[in-house]
Amino acid sequence: SPEHKLRLVTALQANEQICAMTGDGVNDAPALKKADIGVAMGIKGTEVTKEAASMVLADDNFSSIVSAVEEGRTIYDNLRKTLLFILPTNGAEAVVIVSAILFGMTLPVTPVQILWINMVTTVTLAIALAFEPIEENTMEMPPRDPNTPIIGRYFLLRILFVSAIIGGITLYVFNFYSGNNGSIALARTVSVNTVVIGELFYLFNCRKMRESTLTHGFFKNKVVFISSGALILLQLGFNYLPFMQVWFGSVNTDLTQWMLPLLCGVAVFAFVEIEKKIAEKLR
Which long-range contacts (CB under 8 A, 24 or more apart) does 218-226 make? Predict the structure, then answer.
């Protein structure tokens, strides 16, 4: 009866579970309304049922519900990956600026250069993670506790870890090139390159949250490689185009001056992959 169905939904919700209810008749409407997600049949379902539901199955096929869950988990994972990628950019900048203020240093990057870093990494790299396909073991994971924060303790530690690596190497690079009366403009240009290249390598770490990036499916998301190419072109423009040098205070860099930024990127990628392995063993 309608009362029994309603009691079942209420009991599941009292157990702190997210409850979905499917139905096609008028007597299903109260339970559909009460459930977190009411699913009505699009072909056989009554109008009352469809009005009470949050979602309507156009094909009346229960396997479509599984596909919807899979898509939902993929979207949620990709949202977390994007946050996991974006936040260390801001964290690394914070490490650089706060350290410079505390130790009375010249600012390693100017405000307009920070704006450039945020703009190019978000517009090119962060968007690419939205196109990341579902990870193979996504549907094997247990249901997520609805009270779990989108950025948990483990991810927070990852953000701090990556921020410290990129920020620390950037400070070293700036001191290396500005020491002994070196050019501040050159030191700042290489520092910006260090943050951007570090983020570029870290993007590939973020493509998989629970396993190594170097496993199968590395070339599946072509948007990642297109975005990476676009970022490299933009960063070359930042270094070598005269009008960009006027706007952002950058200068020409030779091949040797790209070595430290590249080493930063490799270090970030290697350390995060090692951290993933350790975390997997602990789990």
Answer: 220/133, 221/128, 221/131, 221/132, 221/133, 223/127, 223/128, 223/131, 224/128, 224/129, 224/131, 224/132, 226/128
